[in-house]
Amino acid sequence: MTTTTTTTTNTGTTGTNTAGLAHLETTGFITDGGLETTLLFHEGIELPEFAAFPLLADDDGRAALARYYRAYQDVAASHDVGIVLDTATWRANADWAARLGWTRDQLSEINEEAVRFVRALAAERPDTPAVLNGAIGPRGDGYVVGSVMSAAEAEHYHLLQARAFAAAGADMITSVTMTYVDEAIGIVEAARSVGLPVAIGFTVETDGRLPSGQTLRSGIEEVDARTGSAPVYFMVNCAHPSHFADVFDEGGQWTRRIKAIRANASRMSHAELDEAEELDEGDPHDLGRRIHALQHVMPNLTVIGGCCGTDHRHVAAIRDAFLGNRPAA
Fold this sequence. Notes:
The protein has 329 residues and is of the alpha/beta class. It has helices at 35-42, 59-79, 94-99, 104-124, 151-168, 181-193, 216-227, 241-244, 270-275, 284-293, 312-323; strands at 29-30, 82-86, 130-136, 172-178, 198-202, 233-237, 258-263, 303-306.
């Protein structure tokens, strides 16, 4: 695959620079998979509060994270594609950090370190195009709405991570497993205030709706309407394709705003996954075929990867489906 770095600025990102984000216009970028589920179930690493960011603070933890990311870098290199390297910061916000005994100063520093960590990994593979992506998770649980913030409150809350990512030189920010619109809009504004491009990742239930009950289409259209189409793109993540494939049947311009999918391995609902004591790895090849089929209804899909229960095998199978099982050039 030949990658081309874009030097244009997306018209929906006033005040941000999208130059260098090749995955915006080039098909063929992967992400990683289920970081926390891989570390917990495959590596046997305890993750209090399901948080991976504390691993950056010690040598053993950093070694485990490096092994995890390098497996996906191997997939990218062997398939001749680029990679979006997410920071291990899904839980690295003030509420979750406080439960783990971290101060705000320590939290800011570990978010910056997370960017430096993936930058060093990217430098190991200079021939593989990489995007350094600061990952922001929800203030609360990624499966249920819980307490609701206004957009302004969410902006203020998530500024700590946004500022840390900007200070460390991240290429962009992506919100992951957003459950309702106002928090997503707050993250958009936080990213815009620090001059970083931002993507919004919504999770959906088995009926294809956000946990708030809003339709995916309505959620995307509302974020765009209230932010002047500021996100560089939208993502669907932490759900199996069977949960959301049919929501695209109606078509429409909104489907062109989705450029990324990070799917779960399992068909189980979020509630069932919360109760599961064993990892449901699903069928990697079936997952690949299902995501590949979505190309017909999501014409701008350029970034593909995994979420809960997936590992590098799933992402390789998804990439194979997109490439038609072609080996790397």
